[in-house]
Protein backbone atom coordinates (compact mmCIF):
# COMPACT_ATOMS: atom_id res chain seq x y z
CA UNK A 1 0.00 0.00 0.00
CA UNK A 2 1.45 3.32 -1.04
CA UNK A 3 1.85 5.63 1.90
CA UNK A 4 -0.22 8.75 2.25
CA UNK A 5 2.73 11.07 1.93
CA UNK A 6 3.97 9.29 -1.19
CA UNK A 7 0.46 9.66 -2.66
CA UNK A 8 0.87 13.41 -2.38
CA UNK A 9 4.55 13.73 -3.28
CA UNK A 10 4.24 11.43 -6.29
CA UNK A 11 1.08 13.05 -7.70
CA UNK A 12 2.29 15.03 -10.73
CA UNK A 13 -1.05 16.86 -11.02
CA UNK A 14 -0.55 18.36 -7.55
CA UNK A 15 3.03 19.41 -8.28
CA UNK A 16 2.11 20.88 -11.67
CA UNK A 17 -0.96 22.73 -10.35
CA UNK A 18 0.91 24.28 -7.45
CA UNK A 19 3.94 25.19 -9.59
CA UNK A 20 1.74 26.89 -12.15
CA UNK A 21 -0.33 28.74 -9.56
CA UNK A 22 2.67 30.01 -7.59
CA UNK A 23 4.84 30.66 -10.65
CA UNK A 24 7.74 28.36 -9.77
CA UNK A 25 9.27 25.43 -11.60
CA UNK A 26 8.10 21.90 -10.94
CA UNK A 27 11.35 20.89 -9.23
CA UNK A 28 10.96 23.66 -6.65
CA UNK A 29 7.28 22.81 -6.19
CA UNK A 30 8.19 19.16 -5.69
CA UNK A 31 10.86 20.08 -3.16
CA UNK A 32 8.44 22.26 -1.18
CA UNK A 33 5.69 19.63 -1.28
CA UNK A 34 8.18 16.95 -0.24
CA UNK A 35 9.02 18.94 2.89
CA UNK A 36 5.51 20.18 3.70
CA UNK A 37 3.55 16.95 3.19
CA UNK A 38 5.10 15.07 6.14
CA UNK A 39 4.73 18.11 8.40
CA UNK A 40 1.06 18.66 7.51
CA UNK A 41 0.29 14.94 7.72
CA UNK A 42 1.93 14.93 11.15
CA UNK A 43 -0.31 17.87 12.06
CA UNK A 44 -3.37 15.86 11.07
CA UNK A 45 -2.18 12.96 13.21
CA UNK A 46 -1.51 15.26 16.17
CA UNK A 47 -4.94 16.85 15.82
CA UNK A 48 -6.65 13.47 15.67
CA UNK A 49 -4.73 12.15 18.68
CA UNK A 50 -5.03 15.29 20.81
CA UNK A 51 -7.46 16.04 23.60
CA UNK A 52 -8.91 18.93 21.61
CA UNK A 53 -12.03 18.46 19.54
CA UNK A 54 -11.10 16.88 16.19
CA UNK A 55 -14.65 16.97 14.89
CA UNK A 56 -14.02 19.73 12.35
CA UNK A 57 -11.05 17.87 10.85
CA UNK A 58 -12.91 14.55 10.81
CA UNK A 59 -15.87 16.14 9.00
CA UNK A 60 -13.49 17.45 6.37
CA UNK A 61 -11.89 14.02 5.95
CA UNK A 62 -15.32 12.44 5.59
CA UNK A 63 -16.26 14.92 2.83
CA UNK A 64 -15.91 13.60 -0.71
CA UNK A 65 -15.19 17.14 -1.95
CA UNK A 66 -11.62 16.85 -0.73
CA UNK A 67 -11.06 13.56 -2.52
CA UNK A 68 -12.03 15.31 -5.74
CA UNK A 69 -9.58 18.13 -4.96
CA UNK A 70 -6.81 15.56 -4.49
CA UNK A 71 -7.77 13.65 -7.64
CA UNK A 72 -8.21 16.74 -9.84
CA UNK A 73 -6.24 19.61 -8.29
CA UNK A 74 -6.04 21.53 -11.56
CA UNK A 75 -9.84 21.90 -11.53
CA UNK A 76 -9.96 23.38 -8.02
CA UNK A 77 -6.80 25.36 -7.38
CA UNK A 78 -8.12 28.48 -9.15
CA UNK A 79 -11.47 28.50 -7.31
CA UNK A 80 -11.94 31.84 -5.58
CA UNK A 81 -12.60 30.15 -2.20
CA UNK A 82 -9.72 27.67 -2.46
CA UNK A 83 -7.21 29.76 -0.49
CA UNK A 84 -9.74 30.44 2.29
CA UNK A 85 -10.56 26.73 2.45
CA UNK A 86 -6.85 25.94 2.63
CA UNK A 87 -6.25 28.45 5.42
CA UNK A 88 -9.16 26.98 7.37
CA UNK A 89 -7.62 23.52 7.06
CA UNK A 90 -4.17 24.85 7.99
CA UNK A 91 -5.56 26.05 11.30
CA UNK A 92 -6.55 22.43 12.00
CA UNK A 93 -3.20 21.02 10.84
CA UNK A 94 -0.77 23.53 12.35
CA UNK A 95 -2.84 25.00 15.15
CA UNK A 96 -2.28 28.68 14.31
CA UNK A 97 -1.07 31.16 11.72
CA UNK A 98 2.11 31.60 13.74
CA UNK A 99 2.78 27.86 13.56
CA UNK A 100 2.20 27.97 9.79
CA UNK A 101 4.76 30.79 9.53
CA UNK A 102 7.23 28.71 11.54
CA UNK A 103 6.67 25.76 9.20
CA UNK A 104 7.35 28.04 6.21
CA UNK A 105 10.58 29.36 7.75
CA UNK A 106 11.70 25.82 8.60
CA UNK A 107 11.10 24.63 5.03
CA UNK A 108 12.86 27.76 3.69
CA UNK A 109 15.98 26.77 5.64
CA UNK A 110 15.82 23.23 4.25
CA UNK A 111 15.10 24.15 0.62
CA UNK A 112 16.55 27.61 0.14
CA UNK A 113 13.22 28.70 -1.33
CA UNK A 114 11.70 31.92 0.04
CA UNK A 115 9.28 31.50 2.93
CA UNK A 116 6.85 33.83 1.13
CA UNK A 117 6.57 31.27 -1.68
CA UNK A 118 6.21 28.45 0.84
CA UNK A 119 3.50 30.41 2.69
CA UNK A 120 1.58 30.66 -0.58
CA UNK A 121 1.89 26.89 -1.13
CA UNK A 122 0.64 25.93 2.37
CA UNK A 123 -3.06 26.77 1.82
CA UNK A 124 -2.98 25.07 -1.58
CA UNK A 125 -1.48 21.86 -0.25
CA UNK A 126 -3.66 21.59 2.88
CA UNK A 127 -6.89 20.59 1.04
CA UNK A 128 -4.90 18.01 -0.91
CA UNK A 129 -3.62 16.51 2.35
CA UNK A 130 -7.25 16.14 3.47
CA UNK A 131 -8.10 14.69 0.05
CA UNK A 132 -5.39 12.04 0.43
CA UNK A 133 -6.75 11.17 3.88
CA UNK A 134 -10.28 11.02 2.46
CA UNK A 135 -9.19 8.67 -0.34
CA UNK A 136 -7.29 6.39 2.04
CA UNK A 137 -10.01 6.33 4.68
CA UNK A 138 -12.64 5.57 2.03
CA UNK A 139 -10.62 2.70 0.59
CA UNK A 140 -9.94 1.34 4.08
CA UNK A 141 -13.63 1.42 4.96
CA UNK A 142 -14.52 -0.26 1.66
CA UNK A 143 -11.85 -2.94 2.13
CA UNK A 144 -12.72 -3.72 5.74
CA UNK A 145 -15.32 -6.14 6.92
CA UNK A 146 -18.82 -4.94 7.70
CA UNK A 147 -18.06 -5.05 11.43
CA UNK A 148 -17.20 -1.83 13.20
CA UNK A 149 -13.43 -1.42 12.85
CA UNK A 150 -13.19 1.54 15.20
CA UNK A 151 -13.53 5.23 14.88
CA UNK A 152 -12.31 7.20 11.90
CA UNK A 153 -9.70 8.74 14.19
CA UNK A 154 -8.21 5.34 14.97
CA UNK A 155 -8.37 4.30 11.34
CA UNK A 156 -6.62 7.44 10.12
CA UNK A 157 -4.00 7.25 12.84
CA UNK A 158 -3.31 3.66 11.81
CA UNK A 159 -3.00 4.69 8.16
CA UNK A 160 -0.30 7.19 9.03
CA UNK A 161 1.44 4.89 11.57
CA UNK A 162 2.43 2.29 9.01
CA UNK A 163 4.70 0.20 11.20
CA UNK A 164 2.08 0.13 13.99
CA UNK A 165 4.52 1.16 16.72
CA UNK A 166 2.15 3.79 18.13
CA UNK A 167 4.11 6.71 16.71
CA UNK A 168 3.77 8.20 13.24
CA UNK A 169 6.86 10.39 13.53
CA UNK A 170 9.25 7.64 12.47
CA UNK A 171 6.98 6.74 9.56
CA UNK A 172 6.73 10.38 8.43
CA UNK A 173 10.46 10.93 8.71
CA UNK A 174 11.17 7.68 6.87
CA UNK A 175 8.89 8.71 4.00
CA UNK A 176 10.45 12.18 3.90
CA UNK A 177 13.95 10.66 3.86
CA UNK A 178 13.02 8.39 0.95
CA UNK A 179 11.82 11.40 -1.02
CA UNK A 180 14.81 13.58 -0.18
CA UNK A 181 17.43 10.96 -1.01
CA UNK A 182 15.88 9.31 -4.05
Task: List the SSEs and their pairings.
Blueprint: H1 4-9, H2 12-22, H3 26-49, H4 55-62, H5 64-71, H6 73-76, H7 82-94, H8 97-111, H9 115-143, H10 152-160, H11 169-180
Helix pairs in contact: 2-3, 3-7, 3-8, 3-9, 3-10, 3-11, 4-9, 5-9, 7-9, 8-9, 9-10
Poorly predicted sequence stretches spanning 5 or more consecutive residues: 144-150, 176-182
- Tell me the major beta sheet: none
Number of helices: 11
Distance between the termini: 19 Å
How many distinct folded domains?
A: 1
Structural class: mainly alpha
Following the backbone from N to C, one meets helices and strands in this order, namely HHHHHHHHHHH
Helix content: over 70%
Question: How much of the polypeptide forms β-strand, as a percent range?
Answer: under 5%
Shape: globular
What's the count of strands? 0
Overall mean pLDDT stands at 80
Overall radius of gyration: 15 Å
Q: Which key features would you list for this structure?
A:
single chain, globular, mainly alpha
Describe this structure in words.
It is a single chain. With 182 residues, this protein is mainly alpha-helical. It has one domain. Helices cover 76% and strands 0% of the residues. It contains 11 helices and no strands. The chain has helices at residues 4-9, 12-22, 26-49, 55-62, 64-71, 73-76, 82-94, 97-111, 115-143, 152-160, 169-180. Helix 3 (26-49) packs across helix 7 (82-94) and helix 3 (26-49) runs antiparallel to helix 11 (169-180). It is globular and about 35 Å long. The two termini are 19 Å apart.
